[in-house]
Amino acid sequence: MEGTHQHHFLIVTYPAQGHINPAIHLADRLVQTTGARITFSTSIFGHRKMFPNLTSIDQEVDEGGPITYILLANGYDEGFNPGVDDANQFFSQFKTVGSQSLSSIINTLDSRGRGVDCIIYTFVLSWAADVAHKHGIPSALYWIQPATIFAIYYHSFHGHEDHVAADFLKKQQIEELSKGLKASRRPYLWVLRADCRYEGIEIEDKGENEMVVEWCSQMRVLTHPSIGCFVTHCGWNSTLESLVFGVPTVGVPQWTDQGTNAMLMEREWGNGVRGGVNEDGILNGEELRRCLDLVMGEGEGGMEIRKKAELWKERLAEAVGEGGSSDRSLRKFVHEIY
């Protein structure tokens, strides 16, 4: 533990998997590195996703360890429905209701003798800093995208927004991924959410070498010795996990920071390749098969990619180990707050 005072962090996160997972990792690291106490808070929708067997939607989770989970009201108990809900109204309501709820959480914790020393929030929830300020509590933004994205956002807000684009997974792309995986003639596990399973697309597994599921523990899969390649959309969590576990990648980026992450993976780190797309932005099945053959084959290119993946695994293990760069940065962060 850092010093004699057990620091208490309140971590507030947007209720999406890409926010919740890194926030949980940060909570674990703070406990391991500094002996801190953590209160973890996300919306009712996110809270239920984390703990599906709760008897009540407003039930706190305290398993007797250093991390307690408490829900944050946001006015959307069933989450955001993109086919029904208005995005602007959703974020406006989230700010209004969420600010009140966060303030109430702070007061409740204080009344229990568990005053909050610092509030950490993921981006999108910038209003959490205002709530922290009103309560006289230091706050910090937890950035969950690569630092390179800062430069892109800077240009977007300074007259270059026409050069920043985003896209979403298309029905045709799902079809081509299915074709490419089958054409590779390699065993595969495909994680495809229910809302991406378009009508008319044949994706169900039909043999012992094919498995299609709606969810899996990605880290457990990536640590399995049989995994030879990770076909990924290149979200920042997936990108980091592929580096940490030394798994070569084929990048199929779709939107937001994913294109930048794929570029870093291919050009800067060398631990994977980015699939080429056609004029409609679709990676066809034959291109996916080619990428898989390259990464997993015995050619010089594949061997070099696998070598780089293993090298980054070793470097990151050193970084998060005691005295490593990541370990030092986290300790420095805690010292600067206190």
At a glance:
By secondary structure, the chain is α/β, with parallel strands linked by helices. 45% of the residues lie in helices and 14% in strands. The two termini are 14 Å apart.
State the helicity in percent bands. Answer: 40-55%
CATH class of the largest domain: Alpha Beta
Oligomerization status of the protein chains? single chain
* H and E string: EHEHEEHEHEHHEEHEHEHEHHH
Radius of gyration: 22 Å
Describe it for me?
Belongs to the UDP-glycosyltransferase family. Keywords: Glycosyltransferase, Transferase. With 338 residues, the protein is α/β, with parallel strands linked by helices. The protein has two domains: 8-144, Glycogen Phosphorylase B (Rossmann fold), CATH 3.40.50; 171-317, Glycogen Phosphorylase B (Rossmann fold), CATH 3.40.50. 45% of the residues lie in helices and 14% in strands. The protein is built from twelve helices and eleven strands. It has helices at residues 17-34, 44-50, 87-111, 127-134, 148-156, 171-183, 218-222, 236-244, 258-269, 285-296, 300-320, 325-337; strands spanning 8-12, 37-43, 61-62, 67-72, 118-122, 139-142, 188-191, 210-213, 230-232, 249-251, 272-274. The chain has a six-stranded mixed sheet with strand order 3-4-2-1-5-6, with helices on both faces. β10 (249-251), α9 and β11 form a beta-alpha-beta unit. α6 (171-183) crosses α10 (285-296). The longest helix has 25 residues, at 87-111. The radius of gyration is 22 Å and the shape is globular. Mean pLDDT is 84; it is low at 163-168.
